[in-house]
Amino acid sequence: MDSTDSTIEFDEDGICLYCNNFTDEILPKWRYGDHGLKTLISRAEEIKKDGIGRDFDCIIGLSGGLDSSYCAYIAKEVMGLRPMLFHVDAGWNTDQAVSNIEKIVDGLGLDLYTEVVNWEEIKDLQVAILKSQIPHQDIPQDSAFFSSLYKFAKENKIKYVLTGGNMSTECIREPEEWGAYPGNDKIFIKGIHKKFGSRPLKSFPMLDVLTYKVYYTYILGMKVFKPLDHVPFIKSDAEKLLEAKFGWKKFKHKHHESRFTRFFEDYWLPRKFGFDRRKAHFSSLILTGQMARADALSRIQTTELDEEFLNQEFEYVAHKLDLSVEELRDIFNGNNKSSRDYFSKKIIIDFAAKVLVMLGLEKRLYK
C-alpha cells in the first residue's frame, strides 16, 4: 500500500496503518487452528439443528471464483452442511466462471439456483454509473449479487448465509476512494440513475445495506458466517485442491470471474483514477505469509493482462453496453468525480462501520 491511498499513514518506523492494524487487531484474535476447528464444528451443529425439516440449512453465493468455491467445499465436506448454492447472472460471467460453477455443483452434488438479472435494466444502470465519473463502477453488480441473495434467503426462510469472505486473502480492505463504496446505498444508486439513466429499474434487485445489516440481522435473525476464517486457508493450496478434486481452474487474479470487474480493476480504475487494487490484494497475501513483498512490487510494474487483450476488452465492454467505442472513450476521458459529489447515506454508513469496529465485529480498517 502506498500514497495512492490519500489517507494512508506511516509510523516512525515506516510501517503503515494497515500493517499495524493487522498486527494489533486482526492477528491476535484470529483463530484458525484447533480453536478455529472447534468454532467451525460448533457452528455447523447450530446450522444443522436449525435446518432440520428443511431442504437446505444455509445458502452460499457462488461466483466460480476461489473464495466462494472453497467456501462451498468446506461447508459440504468439512462442516457436513446442506447448502443451497446461489448464483446471480448479471450478464458478465466469463466462460471459465461458468465452467467452475458447474464443476463445483456437480462435484459436491449440491443444488444450484441461478437468478438472472434483467439485462436491459442493469445495462442502463451501469452506463449511468459510468457517466457519473465515480470510481465505484462495480456498484450495479454488487447490488445485484447481495440484494438477490439476501432477498432469496428471506423469502425462503434460510437463516444462515455463508460467505467466502476471509482474512487470509482480504485482511487489507481497499480504501473507499479506490472504488470500494461501503455497501448498497439505495439513495446513492437511485440518485445517480435518476440523473444519468434512461429507463426505470422495475425489477433490478436493490436492497439497502442498512436493511440487511439491521432489519435482516437483528429483526429477522439472519446470520452471516465466514467458514474460511476458521480453517487454514492458503490460496495456492486451495486452488490445487479444487483443481484436483473437481477440475476447477484458477484465475489469473482475484475477481477475474466477472468480465466487467476484470476490465474495471485491470483497466478502468488504474488508468482513469490511478488506483491499483492489486496493492491491497497482494498486501493481504504478504501479511499472511503467502507472497513475498519483492514479488508483489515486481508484479505491479506490469498489467495482469496484455495490452492487446485489454484494448479488445475495452471494445467488448462498449459494444455490450450499446455504446460506441468513441462514446466509452469520451466517458473514460471525462473529469473524475467521487462519491462525495452525489447525495448518499455515506455519513450514516461510515458511522455504522465505526461502531462495528468499536464493538470488535469488524477488524479490518474501513476508510
Description:
This protein has 367 residues and is mainly α. The chain has one domain (17-358): 3-Layer(aba) Sandwich (Rossmann fold), CATH 3.40.50.620. The protein is 51% helix and 6% strand. The chain is built from 15 helices and five strands. It has helices spanning 17-26, 34-50, 66-78, 95-108, 119-132, 139-155, 186-196, 209-219, 235-246, 259-273, 278-287, 293-299, 307-320, 325-332, 346-358; strands at residues 58-61, 83-89, 112-116, 160-162, 223-225. It has a five-stranded parallel sheet with strand order 3-2-1-4-5, sandwiched between helices. Helix 3 packs across helix 9 (235-246), helix 5 packs across helix 6 (139-155) and helix 10 (259-273) crosses helix 13. The radius of gyration is 20 Å and the shape is globular.
Put simply, the count of helices is 15
What's the average pLDDT?
Answer: 94
Shape: globular
The CATH top-level class label: Alpha Beta
Determine the N-to-C terminus distance.
13 Å
Rg: 20 Å
As laid out across the biggest beta sheet, the strand order is 3-2-1-4-5
- Biggest sheet character: 5 strands, parallel
CATH architecture: 3-Layer(aba) Sandwich
Q: Which strand-content bin applies to the residues?
A: 5-15%
CATH superfamily: HUPs
Helix content: 40-55%
Summarize the helix and strand pattern as letters: HHEHEHEHHEHHEHHHHHHH
Oligomer: single chain
